[in-house]
Design goal:
mainly alpha
Length: 102
């Protein structure tokens, strides 16, 4: 009888504890943000997701108080950068403005 390897068995090999998965995702977002062009339309979304991830990491019970404090400080810095960027850059239009109105 031949055994078949199921996707579930393979997926279990790569399962991370929640704090490590969140940390890995945050590091991947940081890398994507750093490598993207300054005018990339996805940068503001990545930055907002980074703030969210840093918030959850800073409250995670499996991390030490010192690490949570560091993550909270990083979150505050990112949040301030997002707020400053949103006040200096005009929002993008959903569609181009009409050249003339009939």
């Amino acid at each position: 009888m031949m055994e078949t390897c199921t996707c579930e068995a393979r997926d279990e090999e790569h399962t991370l504890p929640s704090v490590e998965a969140l940390m890995a995702g945050t590091l991947a977002l940081l890398t994507g943000y750093a490598q993207s062009a300054p005018d990339c339309p996805h940068r503001p979304l990545m930055a907002r997701k980074l703030v969210s991830n840093l918030f959850f990491l800073s409250e995670h019970p499996q991390l030490s108080p010192a690490m949570r404090s560091t993550l909270a400080n990083l979150r505050t810095r990112w949040q301030l950068d997002i707020e400053q960027a949103s006040t200096t850059q005009p929002g993008a239009l959903w569609h181009p403005a009409a050249a003339s109105v009939q």
